[in-house]
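Handout, page 2. Input:
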Amino acid sequence: MKVRFSLVAILTLFIEVNGYALVVPSIPYSIDVSTARSPRLPAFSLDSQLLQPALLKTDQVLPPEQTAFIETVLKPTFSGLEALIEPTTGLPYDILNAASLRRGELIGGDNPFKSSGLAIGLYIAGLIAQRDLGMINDTAARAKLRVTLATLEKIKANETITFTTRDGKRVTTTFPYKWLDPRNGERTIDFEIPSIDGGQLAYSLAVITEAFKGTPEAAQAQKLLDRMDFRLFEKSNGVMALAYNRGKLHNNNIDLWGSEGIVSALLGIAKDGVSSNALPKPSTQPGGAVVTYTAPDGREIPVIPAFDGSMFTTLFPLMFWGTDPKNVHSGILENARRFVLVHKLEGERLKLPVWGWAPAQDADGAYHEYGVSAVSNFGTPLQDTVAAYASFLALNLKGYAQAESEIQAAIGNLNEFKKFKAEGREAFDSQRGYTDSVNPLNGRVAGNILGLDKGTEAISLYNYIQRAKGAASFDTYFWSYLTRIGKAQEARDLLRQRGEEITSLIGEIRMGQKPPTQQPASLDVLITDFEQAAAGFKFISDASGGDILKREFVKDPEGKRGTVLKLEYEDKNQWAAKVFVLRDKLPIPSDMKFLVLEVRGESEFPAQQFKIELKKDPSAVWNGYTPEGFGKTWKSIYIPLDGKPDWFDALGIVLEGWNQSKSGVMYIDRIGFAKAKP
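Output:
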């Protein structure tokens, strides 16, 4: 059934007079919107309603190239954020098809009707940004805010819980569920209440109380904030659980410094008296306190690792805390700066056109963790997809003078993102800004925009511009809130303690011994060097023939390489096979003449050759034979790509023709394509 309603919005006009923006009285208008299957949002919402704010005058405070970037992406980014919003509830859709911008449509198999506390919090913070940047006026911002706050007050959006605090008090609290249906503001099937999402929503509510001080909306936000008590998540040892679900706390905790959860921990400590143990100490965190990334030029860069090795988990807190040295210790800022540097250098090492890894959807709409494994606490993040919003997060370093080079690099990186176009998709569009991600290996572009992306991008741009101008930004309002409740100094002291600890742990960047050349000079396209543990690959054994007994990623036992693939085999039928399956198809450039592998064994191999298979599907296989075998020393083997396919999604390694040794160990490093053999 098609439901029609009238949406009244405000059109604010700006006239620039002698460099200043004057506001012309607002013009009301209305349109019909279908909640059943909305068309692509009309021009008024994406073009007329959000105006390029003449009052920015960024050319007076930013370098020309940064000014040009801001002028290009500002309005499209906020337009993309607005495209996500369901006007009847004021809630953002978590995922939206980037091409159609129709609410309820997306690429992939995810639920199209869900909205998270994180996305909601970023959206209402975005309303402050739009107002402060002069994109809409105060009346329009408050009108939109009222709709969202009214939805958050609904009974079916929340769970009210009575619990016993760590010190024995009985307390009642109310939190929104993890996922709400943006069409009606009610809980979806999930009863979980995450401390992280709740914390990020609470930050935005706290900021609203200051940004709209003295208004009914500020009072309404304060009411919602007051009923959220973060002692709900506090365990007996003072740490905070990741989530609460129908009477039980999640087994996992906010116990890593490299986690976006630290924003919830600090707010819970300041607002509700949660133990200071809730803000993780890097020196005692699980998985190790510090790791060192070795750059291609030999620099050794110590950092506090992040859970997933992504820019998101390390840089996200700076959106809320800012870079003012009065509030945030330089150790925290320096660690964040180094994360940007590490991601940039990792992109250079892999010879990728873009860099910056963070949780994202791939081109088919599947969500994965992406990061740099060398700076990850746990697991091996994928690395075949790069997220634009990761580079936006680097803009939150504005105000930390030592990070200007990284900020400029992030802006340059985002300009490179705009060049990606494939399968009718564009990485950047003037109607909605950047799409979620791109695959720099095959050029594919994600088909969706996400609430996390747009909200993060919008607030990061806002913070960047406002800090450059010396004007109020998101963190300004947050610290004003903490001052009002008498907790600012307590929060500053905690961040100072953690920052001093970080400084002592990471020390200085050192110039170590330059690592061995990571790829032959003639290797023009790198498929993998296994430093990311074959990120983007999964394994299967060939259906017939030999048997791989064990496969694992290890540091080269000889110490001449980094991470390599170790295969232990037992050849039962005179041959053995191992197949890599890519998560996505990989094109083979037409000018590539050789497939290159670097291999060695633990002993001399009697095999005269081995075979490589490139597969498009089981019936489309290209076979390439090596001209020689290999032994105990690393060797680059060049296989002519005669009659090669235009792309492949699986790579097989087949050892055959062995007359003697039927078991052993082989190591494989760098696989790629070359235009010529040296």
